[in-house]
UniProtKB/TrEMBL annotation:
UniProt organism field: Pararhodobacter marinus
A Pfam family assignment: DMRL_synthase
Molecular functions (GO terms): 6,7-dimethyl-8-ribityllumazine synthase activity
Name the UniProt record assigns to this protein: 6,7-dimethyl-8-ribityllumazine synthase
Leading EC class: transferase
Catalytic function, reaction form: (2S)-2-hydroxy-3-oxobutyl phosphate + 5-amino-6-(D-ribitylamino)uracil = 6,7-dimethyl-8-(1-D-ribityl)lumazine + phosphate + 2 H2O + H(+)
GO cellular component terms, semicolon-separated: cytosol; riboflavin synthase complex
Function according to Swiss-Prot or TrEMBL: Catalyzes the formation of 6,7-dimethyl-8-ribityllumazine by condensation of 5-amino-6-(D-ribitylamino)uracil with 3,4-dihydroxy-2-butanone 4-phosphate. This is the penultimate step in the biosynthesis of riboflavin.
SUPFAM superfamilies per record: Lumazine synthase (SSF52121)
Keywords, sorted A to Z: Riboflavin biosynthesis, Transferase
Length: 179
């Protein structure tokens, strides 16, 4: 069954290099490998660099992205994985909670693309992951790249959106000694 055609934005151009972290849950290794291949190719198409880390499952992806965002020098993040519906409600929990965690990070200023597939079966996942077909890994990388370009366009210094930089003190009241 063919999907509807859709418009894809051209990839942004960068004056300064970009470095992305690809965080993948490789529960379905063949699907993960295709998602990673698509993400790498898209990042390389803009002259960017990447690193890949693996986490046990889709629920750990937001935690890994959050930690890396606070503690590393990456410009953006690509979240990859696959959740296939099973016989229990665990599918709903994993899909909703991993997506919610990534969305909250995005809303705080973390430049990331969500490429965690949520599908009914392996065949759907294979089509979506294939870099020569729907290329959802490449699409997630492109989303992160577009957000990085927006932050650079608007002059947001790294680490100044969302979480306060480590060591910054918040003054709650004037005067008085602080313990």
């Amino acid at each position: 069954m063919a999907g509807a055609s859709h418009y894809t934005l051209p990839l942004p151009e960068f004056d300064q290099p970009v470095k992305l972290l690809i965080v993948v849950a490789p529960y379905y290794r063949d699907i993960a490998d295709d998602l990673i291949a698509g993400a790498k190719a898209t990042i390389e198409a803009v002259g960017g660099s990447w690193e890949v880390i693996e986490v046990p499952g889709a629920l750990e992806v937001p935690a890994a992205v959050s930690t890396a965002w606070r503690m590393s020098n990456f410009d953006g993040f690509v979240a990859l994985g696959c959740v296939i519906r099973g016989e229990t409600t665990h599918y709903d929990t994993v899909c909703n909670d991993s997506s919610r965690g990534l969305t909250l990070l995005s809303l705080q200023g973390c430049c990331l693309g969500n490429g965690i597939l949520t599908v009914e079966n392996h065949e759907q996942a294979a089509v979506r992951a294939d870099p020569q077909d729907q290329n959802k890994g490449g699409g997630a990388a492109a989303a992160a790249l577009h957000l990085i370009a927006l932050q650079r366009r608007w002059g947001a210094p790294k680490g100044k959106i969302g979480f306060r930089p480590l060591g910054e003190t918040i003054q709650l009241a004037e005067g008085g000694d602080r313990a």
